[in-house]
Amino acid sequence: xxxxxxxxxxxxxxxxxxxxxxxxxxxxxxxxxxxxxxxxxxxxxxxxxxxxxxxxxxxxxxxxxxxxxxxxxxxxxxxxxxxxxxxxxxxxxxxxxxxxxxxxxxxxxxxxxxxxxxxxxxxxxxxxxxxxxxxxxxxxxxxxxxxxxxxxxxxxxxxxxxxxxxxxxxxxxxxxxxxxxxxxxxxxxxxxxxxxxxxxxxxxxxxxxxxxxxxxxxxxxxxxxxxxxxxxxxxxxxxxxxxxxxxxxxxxxxxxxxxxxxxxxxxxxxxxxxxxxxxxxxxxxxxxxxxxxxxxxxxxxxxxxxxxxxxxxxxxxxxxxxxxxxxxxxxxxxxxxxxxxxxxxxxxxxxxxxxxxxxxxxxxxxxxxxxxxxxxxxxxxxxxxxxxxxxxxxxxxxxxxxxxxxxxxxxxxxxxxxxxxxxxxxxxxxxxxxxxxxxxxxxxxxxxxxxxxxxxxxxxxxxxxxxxxxxxxxxxxxxxxxxxxxxxxxxxxxxxxxxxxxxxxxxxxxxxxxxxxxxxxxxxxxxxx
Amino acid sequence: xxxxxxxxxxxxxxxxxxxxxxxxxxxxxxxxxxxxxxxxxxxxxxxxxxxxxxxxxxxxxxxxxxxxxxxxxxxxxxxxxxxxxxxxxxxxxxxxxxxxxxxxxxxxxxxxxxxxxxxxxxxxxxxxxxxxxxxxxxxxxxxxxxxxxxxxxxxxxxxxxxxxxxxxxxxxxxxxxxxxxxxxxxxxxxxxxxxxxxxxxxxxxxxxxxxxxxxxxxxxxxxxxxxxxxxxxxxxxxxxxxxxxxxxxxxxxxxxxxxxxxxxxxxxxxxxxxxxxxxxxxxxxxxxxxxxxxxxxxxxxxxxxxxxxxxxxxxxxxxxxxxxxxxxxxxxxxxxxxxxxxxxxxxxxxxxxxxxxxxxxxxxxxxxxxxxxxxxxxxxxxxxxxxxxxxxxxxxxxxxxxxxxxxxxxxxxxxxxxxxxxxxxxxxxxxxxxxxxxxxxxxxxxxxxxxxxxxxxxxxxxxxxxxxxxxxxxxxxxxxxxxxxxxxxxxxxxxxxxxxxxxxxxxxxxxxxxxxxxxxxxxxxxxxx
Lengths: 529, 529
Hints:
The structure is a homodimer of 529-residue chains. The first copy, chain A, is α+β, with helices and mostly antiparallel strands. Among the domains of chain A are: 3-150, Uridine Diphospho-n-acetylenolpyruvylglucosamine Reductase, domain 2 (2-Layer Sandwich), CATH 3.30.43.10; 157-273, Uridine Diphospho-n-acetylenolpyruvylglucosamine Reductase, domain 3, CATH 3.30.465; 277-364, Alpha-Beta Plaits. Helices cover 33% and strands 21% of the residues of chain A. In chain A, the strands form four sheets. In chain A, strands 12, 13, 14, 15, 16, 17, 18 and 19 form an eight-stranded antiparallel beta sheet that branches. A five-stranded antiparallel beta sheet of chain A has the order 5-6-10-8-9. The two termini of chain A are 43 Å apart. The model of chain A is unreliable at 364-368 (pLDDT under 50). At the A-B interface, strand 8, strand 9, helix 7, strand 11 and strand 17 of A face strand 8, strand 9, helix 7, strand 11 and strand 17 of B.
């Protein structure tokens, strides 16, 4: 199917035509505990939303890039968290953007910002709109109007430096759009977040997105050679450099700034040859504790596997068909230059030293994956669509993630499971499901990712979700973890982020905000306020 | 020899008792072009320096940690650049610090800063004092007095987390001091800048120091789990985390801040097991261009050698005894976990694909090194002492370094050699020597390091050095490189740093400076002003 003709869902994940089928829904319902699934709520019609009329008219020069189409406005009101989906399904959109702008050039971005500054219009930079933390949603701040700046029109790979293996890419390019262009040069950025299809380079940069691979280059930050950012006081462009020690890194100030001090328009990124050598294995462990020890040994070995994803027993059962109560470690190595079997051998030796048992597969093209691993991968990519179906069935779904040092990893996983489980029991009057996987590993720590399922109560979904978010975030803060390893802070995590952020650094960020966005129009409410 | 009893040179590099011997001096003179070496200038006696009397008296509570001893003050007036050594030898110290403070605790640091803020005293944080860029030298700014804050009393490894392989270390620990303490736990930080013996953890962090190893963890930045920084408005302490996506990285603002927004007092750092598997080789190439191509292939292979140091023909001849006009690539792999011979084999294959010829050595303990490599390593560590001897003999010596992407690497090395050579011809009325080595390599670029030797003219050394610095820095800026890959900006590079730094980022940094150091007492004149 030609993607440009496909229609995006305004209320939920992804393509309209890729929504869960009736058969998938029936299968989901059958796997849920009895009594959890209600009748699916209908999707409201755009015409029935009764959006507040736009409160501002753009100047004539900008009119061609501004839309007031109700579906555009509804689709740019929220990100794609469970909380967003539930509110959209309920037709609860009291604060839609007044305008959706789609700049065609960087000059359009500059003109839009100039106008917004002078008119007191809040500007929310919007890439793929996949935020799960309230990152693209205006929640007040006294502005006269709100403009959602959709950057997906800036989607070109502008330049490729084959010698240095780097590419200059516009920030609005969605994952498949930029990979397709790089592919023409035999190159890949090889950054594959779960949201890959529906998130942009600029969104990844602004939120310090984590990719698919478990070690080495875990975040988009690691690929950045230089950034070009339009701020209200001018364009900031760093020099293309492989590394530098000249003062604090300019790029590191904009990475993670979530659109609050500037709009990233392009970046030079390190790209690479496509991997051709691959070897992978599924390793089972009988306890989570032993699995953690095995994973830690691998993480501290210097082997740096591409994949090192540990699913706890519940997650292995639900998503990878592992029915014997084992945890499953998905382990894989890749290289564009040299065979990786020796590295996998050594990693498997470390795993078996800690009680793992494995099945390995080694290929040059990676096509023949172990069954459990393959099952898990399919489920992974399908997950956001199924999440929407669960939301329509009245089931509460939340995912959150963190990172902590190894010394507290096991305790953190246990206590978060227990505390979130207890919160669900209290809020939902019955047990829920809390599963955990490790998505990224480091020599000094790990990034656990939790999935929560619970029976909702009609009309109370948002408040229950908020309470679960609060319980999980409190646990993370108490246990010395981060409020986010790669989902960003947005508005939903801000309360806890402010506790995590050192106070003098907070003062420094507020000073930066004031100097680069003196009118306070950029993504008001996130991060720096 | 017990290091605490050894005496540091107040005017030059390192230990007094390790200065170049008469025999070394004679050998140096013999290797210089005829007529270059003048009679060695004598080292002035402290009593003859006639330092300006201290202009301020510390409050009684701080008196025990403050010194006005003339040798202390003279030794803390400058860093250790050629420019510094020449001025010290000439007895040219018009702006010595009025006080040298040696805090014993972090509370002392806080008290000193509080007093300095109220008394308008400039504070220069001072670690090992090895700056070669004017980083620890007060050059004016209207303060009533100047205090050099020597942090080497804060030198303890406070805590070791063996599970996460991390350690909490005080910022004033010199390289050998912290390695000795970590060694007791079987661990190493494995960060070995050339200044290792005479630079501190805090200095490395504040200047984003580069270490010895060519790939992977090239800068101290990569080892930082969290930082604790005393700023004039409070203590900033980041959470210990293996990674985080929660807003812009707090640590990355302080890394490279060169003491201008706070005094780093401690850090949690990622440490590692000591490597036991080692394999290395010396590879010769007949042209620099072919060597660059071979090194690039290795840098882009994902093999990540520990050493990948390319010496051009002049450098190979002078420092590694390679007399056939070849360039020498020092290539090495290390691991604490697994054999590295396969990796070296593959790297050597890539080198020979580009015309390299090699001699390899593989050991478990690395004791048996190839001759040329060994020769180079000894020369490397001895170099700063010999630099001082050359300075006394009236020879101009400068080293500078940079980084650029691969697409411009060869041109940069050529043009910098040519332009600096031409400047020397003009300034010194005769040819000089300009050599180049690559110290660090990246998939997208490289860090070249240049050494300059020229015949000086008595009394004109500083101005000639300044002109050479200007010629080299102009070339780096024009060619799209960085003003420093790991020597820092300090005061000597500031003019070019301001051209490299994007303007809006400069505005942001000035806002940060104002918010964290409102009295403007911290290392005035570097970086943010």
